[in-house]
Amino acid sequence: MKPLTIRLLLVGAFLALIGAFYALGLHEQVTLEGLKANRAALQAYVDGAFVPSLLAFGVGYVVITALSLPIASLITLLAGGLFGVVWGTVLVSFASTAGATLAMLAARFVLRDAVQARYGAYLKTFNQGFAAEGPFYLFAIRLAPIFPFFMVNLLMGLLPIKVRTYWWVSQLGMLPGTVVYVYAGTALGEVTSVGDIVSWQLLLAFGLLAVLPLATRKILLMLKKGRERAL
């Protein structure tokens, strides 16, 4: 099968799954109120089949994040409510990173060759700079989620970053936010709005923490250049 055919099939499958999500009305059924109402029944099932529930939840979360469906925050809360802080954090952390990596690889397979072929000459300097400092920028973006999840996966798929680097930096950068949402989910019955979970003070703290590694690298490079000039 030709690469172009595979790309078209992949895009078609991606669009079909997203279309089915909305056509079936799942975006209206998966709500905070719905999760609260069904938590007891779901908890009883999890208690009776913990490992199968853990695996099924993980696979479902990978699909949700790979397709960038707008219910990831709610499902993260549910993970905390059903599995607790430790298991919920481990589950969401690995599943969200796996889904993000799949989305990035799909974007890379479908689009990167065409984009680099068309704009490679203009992107050469940018590609070189990103190859050196890309992980720091990715960490900052993941820790302080200013950009939509799907946009980050798409952009990183077009840029020169290794898959293993993308994985561990994404997992590390998303971990603090994951812990916050999973912990909030342990008191799911008291949560009134997803937006109330993250305050502006917490976002500010995440933002400062996100900038720290990049700022540290810049300072070290400046000091190194200063020492080289002194010699």
Which helices and strands occur, and which strands form pairs?
Blueprint: H1 3-23, H2 26-29, H3 32-48, H4 50-66, H5 72-143, H6 149-158, H7 163-185, H8 200-230
Helix pairs in contact: 3-4, 3-5, 4-5, 5-6, 5-7, 5-8
Quick take:
The chain has helices at 3-23, 26-29, 32-48, 50-66, 72-143, 149-158, 163-185, 200-230.
Explain what this protein looks like in three dimensions:
The radius of gyration is 20 Å and the shape is globular. It has one domain. The protein is mainly alpha-helical and 231 residues long. It has helices spanning 3-23, 26-29, 32-48, 50-66, 72-143, 149-158, 163-185, 200-230. The longest helix is centred in the middle third of the chain and has 72 residues, at 72-143. α5 packs across α7 (163-185). The mean pLDDT is 83.
> Which assembly state applies to the chains in this document?
single chain
Order of helices and strands: HHHHHHHH
Radius of gyration: 20 Å
- How far the N terminus sits from the C terminus, by CA atoms, comes to 59 Å
Mean pLDDT: 83
Main β sheet profile:
none
Fraction of helical residues: over 70%
- Low-confidence runs: none
Number of strands: 0
The structural domain count equals 1
Morphology: globular
Beta-strand portion reads under 5%
Note the total helix count: 8
- Structural class by SSE content: mainly alpha
